[in-house]
Amino acid sequence: MDLMEKLQILSRAAKYDVSCTSSGVDRRGTQGIGSCSLAGLCHSFAADGRCISLLKVLFTNHCIYNCKYCVNRRDNPGPRAAFTPRELADLTIQFYRRNYIEGLFLSSGIMRNPDYTTERLIETLELLRNEYGFHGYIHAKAIPGADNILTTRLGLLADRVSVNIELPSQTSLQSLAPDKSKESILRPMGFISQKITENGTELVKYRHTPKFAPAGQSTQMIIGATPDTDYQILRLTQSLYKKYKLKRVFFSAYVPMVEDRLLPDRSSKPPLLREHRLYQADWLLRFYGFQAEELLSENQQDLDMTLDPKSNWAITHPELFPVEVNTAPYNTLLRVPGIGVKSARRIIECRKFGSLDFSALRRIGVVLKRARYFLLCSGHTMDGMKFSTTSALRALRDGLPADVPEQLSLYNPVQEREKLPWPV
Amino acid sequence: MASLIYTYDGSLEGLLCCVFESYVQQESPEDILPEGTPSFLPSRSIDTERSHAVRVWRALKALGDAAEWVRVGWLSCVPDRAIILYHFICAAFQKGASVCQRTSEPHVTPVFNAVRTARNEAHQYIQFLRFSDYQGILAAEIAPKAMVLPLMQNHFVQRFPREAFLIHDISHKQALFYQNGHSAIREIDSLQLDAADGIEREYRKLWRCYYDTAAVEGRENPRCRMTHMPKRYWNHMTEFQTETDGTDCTGKPFERLPPVENT
Fold it and tell me: Looking at the structure, do residues B44 and B103 belong to the same domain, yes or no?
C-alpha cells in the first residue's frame, strides 16, 4: 500500500477527533527544527470550517475494540492500514518544514493490546524528537489500559496528552462502548494529571527535569449520540476542569456513520448548534468565571438554542443590571453581554485616564448592539434608546432560528411595549 | 490659522520630519500626503532631514511602547497612516508613556487598530504561507497588505534554524532571506522560481489529500472557513492549487518517497 493511500485511510479514521489545538507551550527553536507558540497556530481550515493545526492521524486503524459509535470498530468493514514509525516521522518533518502543520497529533486503534500500541507510538515520537530533533508540537493520545510506565514515557515525549471520555455518562458508555468503562478512562486521566502536578514541583527544584506534557491534558466527548442533557455535560465538564486540571474539554456533535439501533438515525443531522452553544458555555466556565449551576439547573436542563448562554443569563438576572462602566469591577464587566475578556481589560485600563462614554466604548470594541441594554456610562444610558424586553431579546438573538418575523397589527398597538424589568 | 497640508517623501523618516517641522512652526497640518498628491488646500513640502527624524525618534523611544507602535503602525500601510501616526506622536508627546494605554482616545484608537491589523496579518501569514522545497532551499510567496516581513522574521528564523529559506513579498517587492544564522530583508523587483521537482510535487499532493480528507462530511461550512481564512490568502496556498502535470488525484500510483536526511 502506498503512502498516499495510508495517509488517506488513517487521516480519515482520525478526523472525528476534534481536538486540534497546538497551544499551551512556548518553546523557542534552538537547534534542530521547530518551535511552539503559546497561543498555538492554525495552519489551515478545512471545508467544514474546523482548523487544521496538526497532522492528525491514527498510527493504525486496526482495533480490537468494538465501540458502536466508532468508525474503526472491529466489526466495521473497510480498508485497514498502519504506518511504520519512520514513514510517519518523515511525513511529519516534510509537512512541517513546508509550514503545512504545527506538529503531529498521534492517536491509534488498539493493535494486539494497549501496551503494544503505546510502545509503537513511543517509537514514532522518539524518532521524531531524538533523531530528527523535532521541537514542534506533539499531541499524543494516551491509550487507556496501558502500563503507567509507558504512559509516562509518552507524556515525556509529547506536549499534550489526552484521553477521550467519549460519552458524558456511565450509562451511555455502557450501552455504546461496552469494552470501556468510566473507570478505565478516568484512571489514566487521573494518572496524567498527577504526573503533571508532580512534574511541576520537580521543575521548581530541578530546572532541567524533563517536562511531562507541558501543554497539559485535554479530552473530548460526543454530543447527541445519547440522551444526556446539557446540564449533565456542563457539570461533568466543570468537574473535569477542577478535578483533573484539564486544559480543554472538546465537544463533538455526533455525525451518524454507522447503523445501530442504539444510535440516532443515519439520516439525522449532527447537532451543530447544540455543540456551538456548549462551546459558548464552556468559554464562560473557563474565562468568564461562570459556574455550570448558574447557566443551567435541574429544572432547566438544556441550553436555549435561540439565545447565547451569556445573554440568557443576563436576561434572567435583571437585578444585577445595569452596570456602571466607570466603576464596575472586572468580574462584573465580564458578565455583560457584548463585553469580552479583551474589551473588559481595555475598559479597566482606559478608565484610569478619565471617564468613558459610549463612543469611547465603541472605539474600545465593545459590541454596543448587545451591551447597551446592560450598561450605564456616568449614570446615563445610551442616547436614543428605547427599551423593551422584546427589542432586547431581538438584539441579543444572533439571527439564528426562532427569530421568526411577525406580522404587525394595527389593532393592538403599543400596549405590549413592555419595559425591561430593571429601571433604566 | 489657515488650514495647511504637508507633503513628504513617503518614508517614515519623512513623516518624523513633518512632526519636527510642525513643532518648530507651532502649527498642525490638516493632512500629510506623499509628494505629488493633488490637493485644493495650500501645501508645504517638508524636506527629509535625517538628523531631525533621529531627534523625534529618540524622544519617542523614551515613551514606552510608543516608538514600537509607530514602527508597526507604519508597516501596516493603512491608507491614512501618515496623519494618524502624526496625531498619535503628538498625543504621545503630550501624554507621555501612558499613551499606549489610552486606547479609547480618538487620536490613539486608529493607531492601535493599525498596529493590530498589521500584527494580525503577520500572524495569518505565519499560519498560511506555504514553503516549497527547491533543492533544499525553502521558498514562499506572499501578497500581504501590510509590510509583514519584519514582523514574521523572528518566528521563522528561530523555527527553522538549520534550513535556508526565502519569503518573497510580492506586494512590497521585498524578500526575507535566511541562511546559517543570518537573515536579511532586501528589496527585489521580481523573483523567478523554477518548476517544482517530483518529490516536492508528491508532498504537495499528499498535503492536498490530507486537507481534503480532514473535512467532516455533513458539516460543510464555507462561511466559517472564509472567516478564519479569508480568500485573499488562498492564492498562494498549496491546498488550493493543482499540479500542472495532471496527476493530481488521490489514489493514483505513487512512487515511494526517499527518507529525509537528518539535518
Answer: yes
Supply the pTM of this predicted model: 0.87
Q: Which residue of A has its CA nearest to B138?
A: A98
* Contact between chains at B104 and A361 (C-beta distance less than 8 A): yes
Kindly report the nearest CA distance between residue B20 and chain A, in angstroms.
27
Tell me whether residue B125 is in a domain: no
Residue ranges for chain B with pLDDT beneath 50: 249-263
pLDDT tens per residue, range A189-202: 888 888 888 888 88
Topology at the third CATH level for domain A3-257: TIM Barrel (3.20.20)
**Do the Cβ atoms of B160 and A97 come within 8 Å?**
yes
Residue after which a domain boundary falls, among B164, B194, B224? B194
Q: Are residues B168 and B205 in the same domain?
A: no
| Mean per-residue pLDDT of chain A | 85
B37 CB near a chain A CB, below 8 Å?
A: no
- pLDDT value at residue B245: 57
Inter-chain residue contact A46 with B260, CB threshold 8 Å: no
A267 touches chain B (CB under 8 A): no
- Whether residues B251 and A47 touch (CB distance < 8 A) is answered with no
Q: Where are the CATH 3.20.20.70 domain residues in chain A?
A: 3-257
Query: Does residue B126 belong to any structural domain of this protein?
Result: no
Size of interface A-B (CB pairs under 8 A): 177
Q: Read off the pLDDT of residues A250-294 as tens digits, 9 standing for 90 and up.
A: 998 888 777 777 777 777 788 889 999 999 999 999 999 999 999
Owning domain of residue B246: 196-263
pLDDT higher than 50, residue A414: no
ipTM: 0.88
Shared domain for B147 and B247, answered yes or no, is no
Distance CA B151, CA B228 (A): 20
B127 part of a folded domain: no
Which among B98, B216, B262 is the nearest to A255, CB-wise? B216
Contact A30 B222 (CB under 8 A): no
Instruction: Identify whether residues B88 and B164 lie together within a single domain.
Output: no
